[in-house]
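Chapter summary example.
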Amino acid sequence: PGCLPRVVRRMSMAAFVPARSGSKRLPGKNIKDLAGKPLVIWTLEAFVRAPSVDRVIFSTDSEEYWALAKRYLGEEKLVLDFRAPNEAGDKVKIFDYIKDAREKIFEQHFSDFVMGLPTVPFRGTAHVEQAIALYKNTRKPIFSATEYGFPISFAFHVTDDGNWEPASKESPMTTGNTRSQDQRPAYHPNGAIYVRSVSSLADPNLKTLYDGALPYVMDRKFSVDIDNEVDFQVATAMAHAGIFS
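The structure predicted for these 245 residues follows.
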């Protein structure tokens, strides 16, 4: 009696999906039709359908892209972050943008965010939920990753005279230990999912979204990253093959 009830603050999670216009390597990439729907819609759908995501912030410099997103997904969960030309150029790193514009993007509504790049269309809602669960359980930032398709221990550099030199002293190309089973697996970020607190973006020492983060490993078939026409054709073939259904 006489005591105020304890207020438990629910974690508020925003999804952030950046998709600027003006791709040079693959013109119109973000809205290019992939197996019946624009590329960016694959990513927006994965986040809109995620129960742990309260809002999906679509960050773009294109009114056409925003109209397309609304047509496919409506506005019940989707909101717009409209970027000015100086915020969406091909030399603007998305990390720098969300760090500098965090107050505009997230305002005071969200404690945490999950980000996904639209060039990785096959990450699904299940992946989003698993990465967020890992974040909640560990209270550490998360980034998604996948295994390299070929052992990186075989990596080498081409010298100015056209010769080769190993990238590491333990290269199988020099030691002779070329059995693939003996090579240690190596992984790389795949751009599908990043999860961290909004407040961490205010840290002046934060240099990347990988600082202090744990990897969430995804299968390679869900990690296709579209950068050029060849990538797009591969993704199209995979989508039509029905391997994600």
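To summarize the output: Residues 1-10 have pLDDT under 50 and may be disordered.
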